[in-house]
Design brief:
heterodimer; A: 380 residues; alpha+beta; Cytochrome-c3 Hydrogenase, chain B; 2 domains; 8 strands; 49% helix; B: 147 residues; alpha/beta; Beta Polymerase, domain 2; five-stranded mixed sheet; two-stranded parallel ribbon
Amino acid sequence: MCPNMVETHANLAAGGQPVEMLLNMGPQHPSTHGVFRLVLWIDGEKIVRAEPHIGYLHRGSEKLCEGEQYHQVITLFDRLDYVANFNNEWAYCRAVEKLMGLAVPERAEYARVILGELNRIASHLLYVGTMGLDAGAMTPSMFCFRGRERVQALFEAVSGARMMHNYFRIGGLKEELPENFRQLMSGLLPLLKKDVEESDKILTFNEIFLARLKGVGAIGAPEAVDFGFTGPCLRACGVEYDCRRAQPYSVYDRFEFEVPVGLDGDCWDRHWVRVQEMYQSLRIIEQALAQMPEGPVTSPLGRRLIRPPKGEVYVRAENPRGELGVYLVSDGTDKPYRVKVRPPSFCNLSAIQRLLQNSWIADSVVILGSLDIVLGEVDR
Amino acid sequence: MLARAQTVLADFHPQPGALGDLPQLTVNAASIAKVCLRARNDPRLDLKMLHCLAAVDYKDHFQVVYFLHSLTQEGTLAIKADVPAATPSLPSVTSVWAAADWYEREAHDLFGIGFDGHPNMSPLLLYEGFEGYPGRKEFPFNDYQEF
């Protein structure tokens, strides 16, 4: 086996026998969901070895956080997992709130849950659409993007931006929800429910889709835990572990919802778990809307400059892709001393080498798609 | 969790503490691989998941923080190890958790911390030939290198 591309070329140039063919995918490749490069050593159609290369989107976000004031860091978290912005902002805000021992207004907590779960649905809808594309189905992506667009229209009404909302604040929200929020939600939810059902019906039990995904890219639960899988990827292996259930944060202990769990840990199970999660998110949103009290949503801190006390904190949040961890070190100044992000996609993607080994080239795209990575948070 | 962890890891003389609301143990950097192996395999702790590995630059020394999580014991434990700034290196835990592979490469990229026994320490986030360690405090913000 040739260890790298240079040696392979040197070997061939020197008149050596071709051992295995080398196939480069990415960094600009429609199936890599961003800028991700995959080098495959192939023997016919079989992948002998795979080597992932990441870092094309590395912006040094963690370092940049050290140069920004606590409130300004929120914008940087928006740009990590740029498909689930609210969930990212939320995790960071919770970290600082925990450090300061700050209580969040009740209404703000409910608003965060509603927006976070809507973001989960939007993110999963995007996943279902692109998974369809990866498996060769064009239509579902149109259906799913329509549903996602509805959610983003609501986000725009609430925060003023379709993405990169910068709406959560340390201790609350930026401003009051729009006056017609309940009206907007009651208009959105029935349509969104239909969209979710549609995206489920068109793909999940489709015969071709099943044939492409079932039994492909399977990983057992012990190995998945070893690689640090979290979220739908871990639950697909049959591990019933959801941060919202295991260590309920915010007001998640007040809602009834199920944690969908797969069986085999293959691509189809990962897909199925995500689809089921969308239904559960809808359930949570309905309950949260019914329970949401009136009252203030803005932070008691206002726009004041904050200096959290010296200390460290580690916060976890159940994001659409898995568990986001935020490790925050404060030295008592107005800027964080160190921010370490534990991105869920990073760990899920680190198993790609193991998942691709001895699979077919045609399956590599599906396996990568089923991990549902966002390179913004992998590379940071 | 803290009391249990102290009992299980007693012969490594861990210093107990708290990281926010998480139990925390500080151990000698040289024994980190053995500590992690015990923490992972002992059924009383069963810390099968390396949740996060963070490196922090405290100027005079580096601190490597391991966040370990157990799915059966429902708990998280933070293990800290200090390494001197002059010779920042400690044993690798890639043989304990597969997740450590990329985390350690990242910490090596950004902080220049060496992990002895890591199978492939090539750059992960930075490109080949990048000079300096951008995670460190001494690395300037407004500086960049032409690629």
